[in-house]
Design goal:
The structure is a homotetramer.
Chain A: E1 5-6, E2 11-16, E3 22-28, H1 38-48, E4 65-67, E5 71-72, E6 75-76, E7 81-86, H2 108-115, H3 131-146, E8 151-159, E9 162-163, H4 171-176, H5 184-199, E10 206-213, H6 227-236, E11 241-246, H7 250-253, H8 257-260, E12 264-267, E13 270-273, E14 281-282, E15 285-286, E16 291-297, E17 307-310, E18 316-319, H9 330-351, H10 357-363
Antiparallel strand pairs in A: 1-2, 2-3, 3-7, 4-7, 5-6, 8-9, 8-10, 10-16, 11-16, 12-13, 14-15, 17-18
């Protein structure tokens, strides 16, 4: 089944394997007239690039994006935007011995049973490298949203059990450290934790948080196409994500109605909320407040430590994953989370344009019906 | 935008408002030949019916389902199954004063801005009553799955901060108590907690957990249509859900690779996993183990306690929600979670049939290609 | 597979069998604020009702539509509009002997092989009665289009080889005669032809033409979602349709470029076309001229004359279809064609709103980017 | 809106402009295990390549396809297959003067109004070159169908008013002449007709016919997703197509029931039809007979003859299209029609696998329910 598409109106199709010729994405449905160039996309891709710190893989991937269609004289034309990144580092030899063995925590086993065989080179399609297509597309979605005054921004909220402290929260700090943590103290502790894990041939997980500002009220559809439902799908579709929260998330479960309800008040003629336990979404629709999403990311499954597993032919075996692997993928997942949030927000924003007859009449220049 | 459909192959469309003439659902794409009658669906609907205990609304809704199409001589025909439940209790007068006021924690405000006005009677489309359509459809999905040896079952894992203790877990107990908690001690404590909340004119939230057994390996599509991604959307599309976890969920974030990876081993010629931190899903595909999903449910927003809010015309106001409202919706949400899980599982199972050429060749009776 | 849905944003789901309890449709995605009542829909349904003339079946079907949801205080709310028509005439006995025999020209055989069995009462889901749901939904689409100044209108262009003569074309005449032919002379001849066919226990086919006026320029998407592509699908999805043309259709195949190209000119500051061979669509997008679609309808397959066929169990057999059957379905198909055209136009109009960034910026009240 | 995708399970996304860097397609949902290499696709692309005869453009486009993903060790992996064709001949200068003028019969005007501006180089996205992506994808669909014993084949049925005579029909002849006409005499006459048109600076249209053999009975879904409905959409989505017929098409409209109904009979235990007026489709589902589709193609709009038109700024103007243009596109459209038919058939075949519970139970190795 076709499973590499995301979105209804603003849609991305990604393609490519870790060690194939190239990876890429096609964005279809991006409105015409948006100024766009390769550098806009490259800036996002650089944020997920490996080799940025001692906690990320040393693979020297250039990750240079090429726009092949859909942009003319510096602006999007409304037709599909095809983007390609050539894989320059295709050292298949490193992975040859993984052809037969199912790595614990990876999709080797499920891929083999689903498809009968698999491209075993570096994880093939199930590699984290697949997210490059998401990020390239997300860069366009984010740019589109910005042209409407909407901003999306993610950061590392926790690595292992080291969490950001709200009292020390700083966006500036977040840009400075390589873990994308908006809290210098927490970042320092997280680095220490990661060094320990590396020493132990082990790995860590963490939490990425994402915020969206400037969303008009009423984006998202009641019932199945709720904004939060689509954000949850978007997040959970990222390889290592095992949990998603909107607003207070699981804390809401142990809260009480009188605490959890956000009270409305008026400010300069506008409806506002005193608190934001809902995370900016009520009944599946944006309520005008900051949208808050959290994604739980499992520890990197590739560890150098010996693990027990089985082979394709049903033999039990010990395995120790060779080569350099990130002891944590959380920092590199930040831009992926941001991209998926942007893609979801862009699509649902466009879908929200058809909800009211009076606005549709205005759009087409027809006198608005009086009732 | 059309937002009341769920699923690609096995698809449900729900319709209806809390105080309209009726509510219902159309299930399209259910395979032909499944034995089905109204009693099969009624059994599910009865589990979400109000008025079952002192913690649920007294509204005397018969909730009698009528099958209008798609079933002939006791079996599904492969054509759309239309189901309708007449609303017998349409006392609009109870809600008349809510026409102008935005209830905190409800979708009144977002509905009004999205659509320009709203059916204010009992929450209209955003009422919990909307879930009756999901449950009617879920009953069919569950029955279909059972015909393939797949079972889906949900229960109350926590109410407020009272959680089920794994050591006392009992499915039998779960059937006995009205909170659907598989732990008698926890259920007793939860009842006490709910009585306190009612006395305080307040409410509670909780957690519903769902398990799926018997799913073949390889159901779910890599990248965007992962099984867990669609389960997350399904869960988050339920009105009060604010968080979703698969397997260890947020706990995985603070775990380490060596703990979180499930090791494979062989048992009677089958690949098995020693642990199940992944919750039965690897790389977005079922891995043969029990599938585990958790959904966090916020406290009922309708509370008798006075709250501050605003009106449609922008005036600040105090509001106290009159009438009987459930101090907790978690027990009634159990069957809704189960239904959404069943709908997702049924759809993705059918979608998984097209992944391998050799199996397609067998299906159509063509000699399988040799390579 | 779910195959009873049509449309992306403005979507209809139909359900129901000829002799089941009821038939109906759910329209999801209709913008909020459209004034709508049952009489608006009934007017369309009356146009396809049987028993209107001696050429249509005598079945005394009330076809009274009931709106069950989605309309509040006389206006659409933006939520699904569920409509139901009870089947009052369920005389199963007339069709009992057709349980075993495959009627030539009908879907009995294909239904049986696809689903393993079928609801044989009156054709079940493959009955022409299925179109009632399309018409109920089409009535809403047409009303929505009218609120934007767009009109859709169909008529009988030919019955058998008796075609309307353009020189005698009259919309007034079309309303007067029961064949919906806008040419009195042709209508008279067609009546004679039908009487002959009835006398011979035979049937006739014909052509329905449909026109759309007032469509803004640029509706329809290049490549696969062309306006004409979706109109063609809409038409061909009607049971008896075997051919579709846009503009000059098959005549264009034998024309030459210098004749077939429509020349542009200016009129009062507007771009106009001198001719309309294209039928109002260029490159898959509306070009501002009248949209013209033609659908070829095959002769009614149910004829009293004896035909050779086979049974479920593989025996050869003679069959003569008993009961009264229309010798032609073309007049009743007119409103079905109009409904499908309206549904397609409504959906593609809404989809066209997202093509330009400048218009999206205006819609959301954001200053338009200068380039 | 995203409009460059086709198919639900077996899906293609095309991208690229006539004079951009490259054009291409992504095929998602192709089952794993199909043997595939670039030569398989190249063979199809060569059939639509320009410069093959004196009636097709001289543009020396290599049209060399490159597979970038989804194929491993000579077989499809079940993941997206990305294909790219670099545009080697990007002489933008030839088209510079068309920036301002709307060519009659082309999509220049509608593109400009829909998107606010357009890539005017060689027609941009509305160029016939867009079909290269369809053909690359169609080659894969055709190969998949062949692995199941299903064949798709198209040919030129008419050029202008010169039609193939059934009595002289020869597939061998069709392969020999450059017009792909299976009738040597008609091909000779058509060549003469084309020479005349070229001499007159004019162009011709024609008809392409396509046949599908070996389709199992029951492919296609009743109501909206009929096999013929999707074939009609597929055909009409091709740039110059203005009409589509299934089986007898428009001739059925003037036929009578007793002639048009195909009688069933038994042959070696199989149900067969004596005639095939239905074109292999009954009630929207394949009936086991040869599937026949016809597409009417308009004359090439680019003619050297002077035509009247307007400019972007609203001035009237004369225009004569310079450069070499095909006096007819029908021969090059043959493989495009074949490709779209193959894509539709592949998708609907896969969708048909979920119609019966007993077959699903067999597929998953579960004992079939007895009723």
């Amino acid at each position: 089944m076709a499973g590499s598409e995301f979105g209804t109106i603003f849609r991305v199709t990604t393609w490519g394997e870790s060690h194939g010729k190239a990876i890429g994405a096609v964005v279809d449905g991006c409105p015409a007239g948006l100024s766009l160039c390769e550098a806009d996309i490259q800036a996002y891709l650089n944020r997920r690039k490996p080799g940025q710190s001692r906690f990320t893989t040393a693979r020297a991937e250039g990750d240079q994006v090429e726009i092949l269609s859909g942009v003319f004289e510096g602006r999007t034309t409304g037709t599909p935007i095809s983007m390609m990144i050539r894989n320059t580092d295709q050292r298949s030899r490193d992975y040859g011995d993984l052809m037969e063995v199912y790595r614990p925590g990876h999709a080797d086993y499920t891929f083999d049973l689903k498809y009968g065989f698999r491209d075993y080179r570096g994880g093939g399609r199930s590699s984290g490298r697949e997210t490059a297509g998401r990020v390239a597309a997300g860069a366009i979605a984010a740019r589109f949203l910005e042209s409407l005054g909407i901003r999306v921004r993610a950061y590392t909220a926790a690595i292992g059990d080291v969490a950001v402290d709200e009292s020390r929260f700083s966006w500036e700090e977040m840009e400075k450290n390589r873990l994308y943590m908006p809290d210098a103290l927490a970042a320092g502790r997280a680095e220490k934790l990661l060094e320990e894990r590396m020493a132990e041939a082990d790995s860590a997980g963490g939490i990425v948080e994402c915020r969206i500002w400037g969303m008009p009220v009423g984006v998202g559809e009641p019932v199945f196409e709720k904004l939060d439902a689509n954000l949850a799908k978007a997040m959970m579709s990222i390889g290592a994500v095992k949990g998603v929260e909107i607003g207070d998330g699981f804390q809401a479960a142990s809260s009480r109605g009188s605490e959890n309800n956000d009270h409305f008040y008026m400010e300069q003629g506008q409806v506002r909320k005193r608190t934001n336990h809902s995370g900016g979404i009520l009944g599946g629709m944006s309520d005008g407040a900051e949208i808050r999403i959290r994604a739980a990311i499992k520890p990197t499954p590739s560890i150098a430590r010996s693990q027990r597993t089985v082979t394709r032919s049903g033999e039990e075996r010990q395995i120790a994953i060779k080569g350099r692997h990130d002891p944590v993928i959380v920092p590199r997942a930040v831009v992926v989370v941001e991209s998926m949030a942007a893609l979801t927000a862009a699509d649902m924003l466009l879908l929200s344009m058809t909800s009211r007859l009076d606005r549709i009449q205005s759009f087409f220049g027809v006198p608005v019906s009086e009732e």
